[in-house]
Design brief:
The complex is a heterodimer of chains A (111) and B (114).
Chain A: E1 4-7, E2 10-14, E3 19-25, E4 32-37, E5 43-49, E6 55-58, E7 61-65, E8 71-76, E9 85-92, E10 99-101, E11 105-110
Parallel strand pairs in A: 2-11
Antiparallel strand pairs in A: 1-3, 3-8, 4-5, 4-9, 6-7, 7-8, 9-10, 9-11
Chain B: E1 4-6, E2 10-13, E3 19-25, E4 31-38, E5 42-49, E6 56-57, E7 64-70, E8 73-78, E9 87-94, E10 104-105, E11 109-113
Parallel strand pairs in B: 2-11
Antiparallel strand pairs in B: 1-3, 3-8, 4-5, 4-9, 5-6, 7-8, 9-10, 9-11
Chain lengths: 111, 114
């Protein structure tokens, strides 16, 4: 069935280092959404990408959607403690618009 | 801002008990969802509802049922709780079934079944 794979599962970084998480879909997606879940919190919508090759920025966060609309990435420049959490990508099923979720990448700041 | 409220933040139940998890949204959203979240597995869809009295099975419906008698309320029922249903349960809502609509989540209910 349709799947969305997300890697890595965890990433440990020093504060100030960059962070990247990658999503790969088994099928072409009409769009992809990104969510952030802070520790102890719930997922919160960050952004949606729709166009092939689209790049969007939110301050230190850069989101990309691949040319084939099967992969996406989130890059955070110069991480801060406020970036800690788990980042999820999600893409719609072709059949019913329900979201298929990546397993998430947990960003951990080394002490 | 949309508010999605789940009735309990933490819940402890015994094996075999019938468990009700309640979710209410205040923005007249058509769609509502129940997910469970387990470490390393991401979010898995249990059931969703397109509108009042409508429900569809998600990816892991076994052992669960749902009820949506009013638009704002979506209930998840564990008919006979088992230890493998210990998990974080997240309710979400969405304005409508259109590509690109974002989900709004409740704060979650951490259910422990002993």
């Amino acid at each position: 069935g349709q799947q969305v794979m997300q890697i890595p599962q965890y990433q440990h970084v020093q504060e100030g280092e960059d962070f990247t998480t990658y999503c790969n879909s088994s099928t072409t997606l009409s769009n992809i959404q990104w969510y952030k879940q802070r520790p102890g919190g719930h997922p919160v919508f960050l952004i949606q990408l729709v166009k092939s090759g689209e790049v969007k920025k939110q301050k230190r966060l850069t989101f990309q959607f691949g040319e084939a609309k099967k992969n996406s990435s989130l890059h955070i420049t110069a991480t801060q403690t406020t970036d800690v959490g788990t980042y999820f990508c999600a893409g719609p099923k072709a059949s019913n618009y329900q979201l298929i979720w990546g397993a998430g990448t947990k960003l951990i700041i080394k002490p | 801002d949309v508010k999605v409220t789940q009735s309990s933040r933490y819940l402890v139940k015994r094996t075999g008990e019938k468990v009700f998890l309640e979710c209410v949204q205040d923005m007249d959203h058509e769609n509502m969802f129940w997910y469970r979240q387990d470490p390393g597995l991401g979010l898995r869809l249990i059931y969703f509802s397109y509108d009042v009295k409508m429900k569809e099975k998600g990816d892991i419906p076994e052992g669960y049922s749902v009820s949506r008698e009013k638009k704002e309320r979506f209930s998840l029922i564990l008919e006979s709780a088992s230890t493998n249903q210990t998990s974080m349960y997240l309710c979400a809502s969405r304005r409508r079934s259109t590509v690109g609509e974002k989900l709004f989540f409740g704060s979650g209910t951490q259910l422990s079944v002993l």
